[in-house]
């Protein structure tokens, strides 16, 4: 019996290490003001910090998208890749990139988490001025559609950062306004709605967590922020500066003032502290997960899968290697609104199938691939991102 314990331990350890690579933070130094320290991996199971990916003291190699070459930056300015005032971060899992913006700058930076190379996107769409706190970008997240979204303090600019043909483009989606029901809990007022961070859900709407602990839901199609409620279970003067969804669908929050990490149930807004006693200064959090994700990689059998998940040639491969799977299967593709956009029958012989599927007429965006038996039993749900 004992001989099985060590491999099992390795399996659990490997799964935990993998999970830790899904969660990232902008960390600060132990000071009363915002002073960027590093980008780091977070272990949100144990509420502790992990590997430091890139620090304020590291040598930065910055490539300018506009100038098509490496550039040297003024480290004494607010607009550089290691600026002291960092407060907006998102993770792009398809490219293993960290996307971020300094508070006093409109510059967008793309840090490759593996190579540590940085791409500068000279953004002329966002209007950030150093003297106007309303204009500072303080919230950022990956959307369910594969794009990155960022929002300034006052909600006057919701921007979309997309990658097409190897180039990043920026679009201004408009002004976020208060829902008529918000009353005194205004999204656009400093004391109730500013700062914090945001997360996305599976309908590509957003939840903004303000520094004061208020939570607003932004319906993307309407550009309105509706007050949801206030987080309970955190210390009275806790400043919410980072938020990201974990693998369980809960929202992890962190504070720039140096405090424990908390896990928040989005339905009840009840928070509970994560087990670690560490109190890091966290300016922003990012992950690859989404709230209310109906396709959380349901896979009832280990030997059925589809690949790649980032589809740039409109082709995916379906692989089955399981004697328990027999006969005909049904592959269905849904868009993020739940609309059936494609269906195809598959035939498994002797528990084996390796078939290439052409995703004809699918435009760029996020989709859910669903594979079922003829009886309706779900074998696989998996999100894919179709790109140009």
Automatic annotation (TrEMBL):
<dbReference type="Pfam" id="PF18962">
    <property type="entry name" value="Por_Secre_tail"/>
</dbReference>
<protein>
    <submittedName>
        <fullName>T9SS type A sorting domain-containing protein</fullName>
    </submittedName>
</protein>
<feature type="domain" description="Secretion system C-terminal sorting">
    <location>
        <begin position="307"/>
        <end position="384"/>
    </location>
</feature>
<feature type="signal peptide">
    <location>
        <begin position="1"/>
        <end position="19"/>
    </location>
</feature>
<keyword id="KW-0732">Signal</keyword>
<dbReference type="InterPro" id="IPR026444">
    <property type="entry name" value="Secre_tail"/>
</dbReference>
């Amino acid at each position: 019996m004992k001989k099985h314990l060590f491999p099992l331990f390795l399996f659990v350890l490997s799964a935990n290490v993998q999970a830790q690579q899904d969660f990232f933070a902008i960390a600060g130094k132990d000071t009363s003001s915002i002073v960027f320290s590093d980008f780091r991996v977070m272990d949100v199971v144990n509420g502790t910090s992990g590997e430091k990916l890139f620090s304020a003291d590291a040598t930065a190699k910055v490539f300018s998208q506009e100038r098509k070459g490496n550039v040297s930056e003024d480290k004494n300015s607010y607009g550089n890749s290691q600026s002291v005032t960092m407060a907006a971060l998102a993770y792009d899992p398809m490219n293993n990139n960290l996307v971020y913006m300094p508070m006093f700058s409109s510059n967008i930076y793309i840090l490759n988490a593996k190579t540590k190379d940085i791409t500068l996107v000279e953004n002329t769409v966002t209007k950030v001025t150093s003297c106007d706190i309303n204009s500072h970008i303080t919230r950022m997240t990956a959307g369910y559609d594969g794009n990155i979204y960022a929002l300034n303090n006052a909600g006057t600019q919701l921007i979309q950062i997309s990658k097409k043909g190897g180039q990043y483009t920026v679009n201004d989606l408009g002004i976020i306004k208060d829902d008529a029901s918000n009353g005194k809990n205004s999204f656009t007022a400093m004391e109730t709605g500013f700062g914090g961070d945001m997360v996305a859900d599976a309908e590509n709407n957003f939840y903004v967590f303000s520094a004061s602990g208020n939570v607003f839901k932004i319906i993307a199609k309407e550009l309105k922020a509706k007050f949801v409620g206030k987080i309970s279970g955190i210390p009275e003067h806790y400043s919410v500066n980072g938020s990201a969804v974990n693998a369980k669908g809960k929202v992890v929050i962190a504070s720039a003032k140096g405090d424990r990490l908390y896990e928040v149930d989005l339905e009840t807004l009840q928070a509970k502290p994560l087990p670690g006693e560490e109190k890091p200064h966290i300016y922003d959090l990012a992950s690859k997960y989404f709230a209310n994700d109906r396709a959380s990689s349901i896979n009832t059998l280990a030997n059925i899968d589809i690949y790649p998940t980032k589809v740039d040639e409109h082709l995916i491969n379906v692989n089955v290697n399981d004697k328990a799977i027999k006969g005909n299967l049904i592959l269905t593709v849904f868009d993020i609104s739940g609309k059936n956009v494609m269906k195809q029958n598959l035939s498994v012989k002797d528990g084996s199938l390796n078939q290439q599927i052409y995703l004809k007429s699918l435009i760029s965006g996020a989709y859910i691939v669903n594979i079922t038996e003829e009886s309706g039993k779900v074998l696989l749900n998996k999100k894919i991102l179709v790109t140009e």
